[in-house]
């Protein structure tokens, strides 16, 4: 015992007094504290108040600027000593009220929480930056919130001040596990989840797994997760987020409650950006915010990133205001006034002016593809103005006046044809080796297409020419030796008798069809060339290509249709054309008349590869058909 006490009281290296280490922090501790102050580490700032207060003040006066400042800062002013946080992170939604544009999803979640009908797996889909991951974190907050008094339950309006809410917001909650499936794609990563779900949550109501970009998981990983996803423990919730829902197996989709987060409308984005600028004490023109919202393409995160860049770009000017011209230069957009000048030059056929405007815009940094998109947007707005559906915001009276003028002066067909040409030009510019040359050629093609006649007007003109065409002359009608009156009288009687014969035969065929003999009526139309037609008498010649004797069928069909006895005889004399042959002859004559039209000849010459095809659409009954090309 004595030796043991002597040994315990000896000055051995492992028996050094620990109070020496407590008197002053080591160099490593000072370095760690300095790094925490420099980089704003949250954990060091939280743990610093737990250290004894007297010793640092007494022994480290020279280290006060390094370690003492983060420890004494309140949470509200922590940003003063931290690096700048981009707007997309600073204004990430912390409550469902701050989540814009997803009212339907929020209402569904609220009702599910109130009725205690919560699914075990949620799938958030949508384009980038619409709030998929933010929604997953908000759901985790809503399910695990305990309220300021620690007695609350799941709620659609988490308090944000209780320990679970704060820990989830800071990304340090032990029971809310976030996994990036893009970097954890294998079965081993999923196996860790499967093994961990068996254990209850440590400090929360639910253990929540947030898997971002879940479509990146391998097929084997999905298969391994299926059974756990179908029947997870009651304390486990899965929250999936993906931008490519079509890559998910159907077996996974069927086990999740799916929410499709929609794109945010541009006006709503502009209002949101105005609110952000107000909080940031930054002035911004409404037109500039509208440009940022349009460039965001429905993504809040993309829009905030662009707005962040626009604010920095405006500060370089020294005025501090986000101006439309600066945003336009930053985004490489084409000025709307220049777009109006360009489309006016196209419509007026000013080729030199078109090329000059394009070259000037290109020298200012506007890409040719942006020029084409700007023109497409303008033509689209002209079309909407024509039908009274232009819901986009017009920023100037000049622009509204120009749109209304073009809407009245251009036909609907012209606007749609211009859109199609611009769309084709856009594709050519996007894939061309020299986009500038492709844009120039596409715009010149549009300008020259304006000289082409409107298809609707062309069709009407052809119809007028066909209606004015003179009747074909019969043999002997042009005999100079005969008197004009006698010739007309001589030719009128055969024409009239042939027309009367054809009309009488058509009526008989219709009567046979009305009596229910459809097959007999079709036979009469295709095979019968009438030689003589009288009261109860029919002599006919059968059309070439048909061998079956149809005399008895004709006699029976005519007798049933008229109630009279008919004498039907097949003869070898030449008869009038069948109904089908007459229709084909009329169609051929009409086609030749159209082809001989000067307008059609000019069109065929302009387009060597064009073909004249027959319009097989039925004519409008009663002459009341609608025309899409009314001008």
Précis, in short:
The chain is of the alpha/beta class and 631 residues long. The chain is built from 29 helices and 10 strands.
Word description of this protein:
55% of the residues lie in helices and 8% in strands. It has a 5-stranded parallel β-sheet with strand order 2-3-4-1-5, covered by helices on one side. Mean pLDDT is 77; it is low at 1-15, 17-24, 30-79, 471-496 and 617-631. It has 29 helices and 10 strands. The radius of gyration is 42 Å and the shape is flat. Helix 12 links the parallel strand 3 (207-212) and strand 4. It folds into 5 domains: 15-81, no CATH class; 88-260, P-loop containing nucleotide triphosphate hydrolases (Rossmann fold, 3-Layer(aba) Sandwich); 266-330, Helicase, Ruva Protein, domain 3 (Orthogonal Bundle), CATH 1.10.8; 332-451, Zinc Finger, Delta Prime, domain 3; 455-467 and 495-607, no CATH class. With 631 residues, it is of the alpha/beta class. Helix 3 (27-39) crosses helix 6, helix 18 (336-348) packs antiparallel against helix 19 (351-363) and helix 25 (484-514) runs antiparallel to helix 26.
